[in-house]
Amino acid sequence: MHPAWLPDAAFAPLGSRRVLVAPGPDAGEVGGTVVDEVRRAVAAHGGSLTVHAPGDGVLDTAALHAYDLVLAVARSAAHPTGSVAGIPLPSTEVDVFLTLLTPSDAADVATTGLDEDTFVRMQTGGATVVVAGGATGLLYGLHDVVRSGQDAFVGDRPTTTSRPAAPVRMLDHWDNVDVHPVMGQVERGYAGGSIFYADGRVRDDLSRVAAYARLLGSLGVNAVAINNVNVHRTEARLLTDGLADVARIADLFRPHGVRTYLSVSFAAPMTLGGLGTSDPLDADVQAWWAAAADRVYATIPDFGGFVVKADSEGQPGPFAYGRDHADGANLLAQALRPHGGTVFWRAFVYNHEQDWRDRRTDRARAAYDHFAPLDGRFDDNVVLQVKYGPMDFQVREPISPVLAAMPRTRLAVELQVTQEYTGQQQHVCYLGPLWHEALGFPLADDATRTVAQVVSGVPGASAPARDLTAGGITAVSNVGDDEFWTGHPLAQANLYAYGRLAWDPTTDPVAVLDEWIGLTFPDADPRVRGTLHTLMDDSWLTYEAYTAPLGVGFMVDPLRRHYGPNVDGYEYSKWGTYHFADRDGVGVDRTVATGTGYAGQYPPPWRDLYEDLATCPDELLLFFHHVPYGHVLRSGQTVIQHVYDTRADAVDVVTAWVDAWAALDGLVPDRLHARVAERLAEQVRSATEWRDQVRTYFFRKSGVPDASDRPIY
Ligand code: GCW
Question: pTM value?
Fold first, then answer.
């Protein structure tokens, strides 16, 4: 099993130091993990570990001189014995560390509190000191030190307080227990089988899950849904007969601060319970869900809750009973409420059986049309989970307007780490920059409130302060039982970046990539770092440049399950029509004035900006407007020449990566080198196919010659 970003060598700087861990009286299993990590590191690298138990007496500042690194929990609600700057403290020894804070740091901690996940890191008295609010914060602080390598111990660093942006940082697995005849073991999985299931059941050997839990805990990911949102027959039973197995999985996540969730079927009262209905207003249905939740919590007391895809792509839902999504979500919320569980209800609802002749039906509008009117009707343990764009994880989409339209609903944004539409882990496509842009997009309150702030419950003009608004950040995972976890070894960087950006969406994604390179290839020749930046920094934009142009999306092959070009693959189909190219022009008119009206779902200034051809950003032009091929972009180029040039230039870029990577032979592990080389060859082949099909298609449609004279077929 590949160690991903936690190879032993990444622990060398910490492992060669004298480390004191004071996990506090409520350390629990997560505190145990911190101690184990340090123990393993010092055993491998020659340092020492001292565990300071609550009864061991008082540590004073002199103790700092005996250690290079101190990791201490500061607060325990159960054992308050004093306070510093208004923070209750469990025991006198941690006072020592907190009093070392500068007055302004102390004020920051005092105002915001030092909650479970938060840690303060400082350098003082020759030691590096991490003081955390709880065991999870201590784990996150430990890995913060690991990520800094030697820098954690040399020179002066300012004191920093770190806390996660959003309370829930989740990964969803689209893993099936049974191999699905069309979708396989893992729906949209490109990394082999499931780490959870094989042979129609939960695996006996879950050692990979344990290793995965450790990887996630190191990033601060704290929630995992372990089965596909398309809940088929066998998978539905995880909620009932399968609970003992779910508990085995939860036991492996728990020591890393990760709570387990299940995707459930809205029809479960019928399919599992034998009832005649799943109507959310039916008393027997309500009782069935309450009993189901009681059983879950009797088996798994810290169970997270349910993820639900309802009335979407054929999944059952409340519509069958004339009820709406709030009725449906609240049904499950009420069953979970006594136990503190949460429902993640997905907003990915659209008509997948539409008549392509009907030009007013627009898939992009669907989530808003269904959900915005329900704002304020969801219970406070419901989180509405919204894909970042209005369509479906395309390489380029505008941000979903739903995220600005529901100030009285807890919202989570959903990203896709698995590369369904971004090269299926055959192509290098580093998605950190896409997520950074999406999470940092100033969607609400006159372009002052970002998506990350909305889902984190940061108050704004349209959403006055209230705890209710914090939802979270979720994403579809990209791992499987593949040797490198992710099929393409470089796709590990996407999982890493997701975790880091879910913790702090404002982090520079190239800096995150650099951090990943340093951890994954410790002590490597500097050429490795340089080449990986060459291949990966802009790979999202490169992928965009050889696939569907200017935000129009899709153009993928339905038969090869969304892989490879097929410009008309979805055109005039029941799933929707996506580009409307004809001899005169291309793009979808989503304006209010003449189109589907989608642009009007945005708050100002976005609705006007997208509505107007003159201000619509180039990269989204064809998503919002149908234009003639000769339309001149803001870049100064015509649409058609842009399509011709960028497709060809991008293939030149990808082709150059092959030699750049070949030069690393011998500088990275052989098997990893070979795997990446094999995938790069496929990327060049596939990108070339995209280039030639798209360029040729648009030449034949438009009749406009390519000014560059490069080949067209
Ligand atoms: O992106 C699409 C996928 C489906 C998926 C669906 C969803 C799990 O093609 O495979 O189903 O989205 O998000 O529910």
Answer: 0.96
